[in-house]
Amino acid sequence: MGRYHRSMAIEVSELPTLDARATAAYAHLFQALSEPTRLAVVQHLASGEHRVRDLVEHMGLAQSTVSKHLSFLVECHLIQARPEGRATWYSLTRPHELAALIAAAERILHATGTDAVLCAHLRHPPQAPAAEAETGSDVPAGRPGNKTGTGILTDRPRTGAGPGVSTDGPGAGRPMPGTSRSVSAAASGGAAASSGREAE
Q: How many Cα atoms sit within 13 Å of 122 on the Cβ side?
């Protein structure tokens, strides 16, 4: 005669206390990376600053589609926009922290039977210069500019480098990966939030 197992009700006092605000924040972050096109945009930006027109050319998508995804990533604080003249350049805000998150996801995927690896630029961002570490600057890898004593970036135009040439980090003086033509050519626009800069 088989045993009868009665399910035991869980006492309300034993339920975990959930922080609704924290849960929403985590969900928003994971939502930003859960859409394939947005994740592809993030991988492109891991190689350095891009404008909307650069991403449109590299990814073969409509400008409105790229702008929509950039706006969402800006809202999640994963990327930031830097105006320069009539152009807007986008870059990762926290490439090293994002790399750690991607590495953790890679381990989880492997443990659950899926071997998948994203682009090397996203998984292994260049080390920040020592001067940035000392000043506490939040300037992302691959973002050119000049720091003040407070670690704030000034938006003076690039000098001393040819079109599409990295001016920061270990790749200084070499063409930025993924750039098929000059990324300092005629300016294009930004995402929906900066649509005034999009039209030439």
A: 20
Structure tokens at 13: 């006092």
Q: How far is CA 157 from CA 3, 127, 143, in A?
A: 78, 23, 12
**Spatial CB neighbours of 131, under 8 Å, sequence gap ≥ 6:** 137, 147
User: End-to-end CA distance of the chain, in Å?
Assistant: 82
- Position 146, amino acid: N
Whole-number Å distance between alpha carbons of 129 and 138: 12
Six-digit token string for 83? 């105006």
pTM summary value: 0.60
Give residues with Cβ within 8 angstroms of 16, minimum separation 6: none
Given a contact cutoff of 8 angstroms between Cβ atoms, the answer to whether 167 and 158 are in contact is: yes
Query: Which residue, among 173, 177, 153, has the nearest Cα to 50 in the 3D structure?
Result: 177
Give the tens place of pLDDT for each residue, 81-99. Answer: 999 999 999 999 999 999 9
